[in-house]
C-alpha cells in the first residue's frame, strides 16, 4: 500500500493562493490521492499544466495510490478529470489491479464503470488472480459479474483457481468454480454458505486440472497445504483428475497432509463392512461366533466400480472369510457345505446361494441396478452389506 508524507509548506502556498512550482504540485497530487484528501485533490485538479498521469518518485500514479488505499472519492475525482484508467505503474500493475489486490470493492467498481481493462495481466496476474490470492470474496464476485476471465494464467502457470487454492479461501474458490452472474440473491447466499454438491460447476475440467510449471494442479496445492475445505470443493467437480502426476510423478494423494489424505480416501471411495448374519435355523458343528462377525472385512467402492467388479469382490471376500476359518487347524475347505435344496462345495456356486442385503435393499451376486454401485450406495446411504446364510451349515 503506497503512502506519502505531507509537505506543509507546499500546502500553505496552495491554500493561500501563492505560486507553487509544478514539480511540487505533482508531489502534492500524489500525497492527496494516497491519503484521501478530497479537498486538496480537487484544488490541484483545477490547476492548469499539471500532469495527472505522472508517476511519483516511488513509481505510482495518483489514481493507483487512491485505489490501493481505498479512497473512492479521490478515484472518482481523478476519473472525472480524465486520468488514464489503465495507466501502469513501476510494478506493472494498473489501478484496478491495486484495488483488486487490496480488496477495494468500491474503487474497483468505479474503475470498471470507466472501462478499466478487467483482464489486464502483467505476468499473467490479472485483477481476478490478485483478488483470489488475497481472499477478497466481494472483489472476486464483482470481477466475475463484470466478465473476468477465469483461465488467465500467470508466468508460472498458476490460474486464479491455483491462487484461490493456495490462499485457503474456500469461499473464493467456490465462487470461481460455481458462480455465474445470472444467479439471484438467494442463490448467492447458498453459494457462500451451503455445500457445493448440489451446484453445477461453471469451469471446465481442463481449467480445473491445468498444471503449473512444476506440474501441480490446484488440488496438489490445496492438499499439500492442508486446506481440506478447498480440497473438498475441488473434488466436488466430477472432472477432477486426482491421479494426475506432477513432474516428479506425484499424485494429489502423494503430496497431501495426513488430514487431506484421509479426506481424499473418503471422498473418492466408499468403505462399507461385510457382515455374516446367521438365522436361528442355521446349524453349525462349530461355534456360531467362528462364522458370524461384526465385520469380516471392508469393501472399498470407487466411482468407476462396476456391478461386475462389486459382485466379484463380495464373492471373494466371503470365500476368503470361510477359507480362513477352515484353514485354522480344522477340516479342509471342502468340508464346509451350504445345504439348501442340494449340497455344494465352498465356491462361487455356493456364493450364489447366499442372500445379501445392501442396507435395506435385497441384492444377489450378479444383480445389476440402474445406478452404479457408487451412486446406489451414496443415494441409499448404505452403511453395510449383510450376508445371510441359507438352510443349514454343517462341518462334518
Automatic annotation (TrEMBL):
Molecular-function annotations in GO: aspartic-type endopeptidase activity
Swiss-Prot/TrEMBL GO biological process terms: proteolysis
Repeat keyword on record: yes
Transmembrane segments annotated in the record for this chain: none
A Pfam match: Ank_2
Residue stretches of each ANK repeat: 58-90, 91-123, 123-155, 156-188
Keywords from the UniProt entry: ANK repeat, Repeat
Protein name: Uncharacterized protein
Origin species: Aquarana catesbeiana (American bullfrog)
Amino acid at each position: 500500500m503506497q503512502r506519502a508524507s505531507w509537505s506543509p509548506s507546499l500546502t500553505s502556498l496552495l491554500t493561500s493562493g501563492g505560486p507553487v512550482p509544478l514539480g511540487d504540485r505533482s508531489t502534492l497530487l500524489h500525497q492527496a490521492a494516497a491519503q484521501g484528501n478530497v479537498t486538496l485533490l480537487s484544488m490541484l485538479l483545477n490547476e492548469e499544466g499539471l500532469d495527472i498521469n505522472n508517476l511519483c518518485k516511488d513509481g505510482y500514479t495518483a489514481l493507483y495510490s487512491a485505489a490501493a488505499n481505498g479512497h473512492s472519492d479521490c478515484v472518482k475525482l481523478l476519473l472525472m478529470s480524465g486520468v488514464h484508467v489503465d495507466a501502469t505503474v513501476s510494478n506493472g500493475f494498473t489501478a484496478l489491479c491495486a484495488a483488486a489486490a487490496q480488496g477495494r470493492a468500491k474503487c474497483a467498481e468505479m474503475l470498471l464503470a470507466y472501462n478499466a481493462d478487467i483482464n489486464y495481466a502483467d505476468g499473467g496476474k490479472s485483477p481476478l488472480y490478485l483478488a483470489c490470492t488475497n481472499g477478497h470474496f466481494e472483489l472476486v464476485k464483482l470481477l466475475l459479474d463484470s466478465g473476468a476471465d477465469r483461465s488467465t494464467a500467470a508466468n508460472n502457470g498458476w490460474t486464479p483457481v491455483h491462487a484461490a487454492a493456495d490462499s485457503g479461501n474456500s469461499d473464493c474458490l467456490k465462487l470461481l468454480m460455481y458462480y455465474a452472474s445470472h444467479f439471484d440473491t438467494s442463490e448467492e447466499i447458498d453459494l457462500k454458505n451451503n455445500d457445493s454438491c448440489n451446484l453445477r460447476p461453471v469451469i471446465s475440467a481442463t481449467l480445473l486440472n491445468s498444471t503449473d510449471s512444476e506440474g501441480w494442479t490446484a488440488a496438489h496445492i490445496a492438499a499439500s497445504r492442508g486446506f481440506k475445505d478447498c480440497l473438498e470443493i475441488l473434488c466436488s467437480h466430477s472432472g477432477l483428475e486426482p491421479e494426475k502426476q506432477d513432474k516428479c510423478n506425484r499424485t494429489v494423494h502423494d503430496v497431501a497432509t495426513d488430514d487431506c489424505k484421509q479426506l481424499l480416501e473418503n471422498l473418492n471411495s466408499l468403505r462399507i463392512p461385510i457382515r455374516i448374519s446367521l438365522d436361528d435355523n442355521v446349524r453349525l458343528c462349530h461355534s456360531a461366533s467362528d462364522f458370524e462377525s461384526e465385520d469380516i472385512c471392508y469393501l472399498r467402492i470407487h466411482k468407476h466400480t462396476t456391478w461386475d467388479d462389486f459382485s466379484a469382490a463380495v464373492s471373494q471376500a466371503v470365500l476368503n472369510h470361510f477359507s480362513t476359518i477352515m484353514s485354522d487347524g480344522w477340516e479342509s475347505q471342502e468340508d464346509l457345505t451350504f445345504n439348501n435344496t442340494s449340497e455344494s462345495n465352498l465356491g462361487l456356486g455356493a456364493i450364489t446361494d447366499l442372500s445379501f442385503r445392501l442396507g435395506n435393499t435385497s441384492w444377489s451376486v450378479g444383480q445389476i441396478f440402474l445406478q452404479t454401485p457408487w451412486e446406489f450406495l451414496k443415494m441409499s446411504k448404505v452403511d453395510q452389506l449383510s450376508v445371510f446364510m441359507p438352510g443349514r451349515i454343517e462341518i462334518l
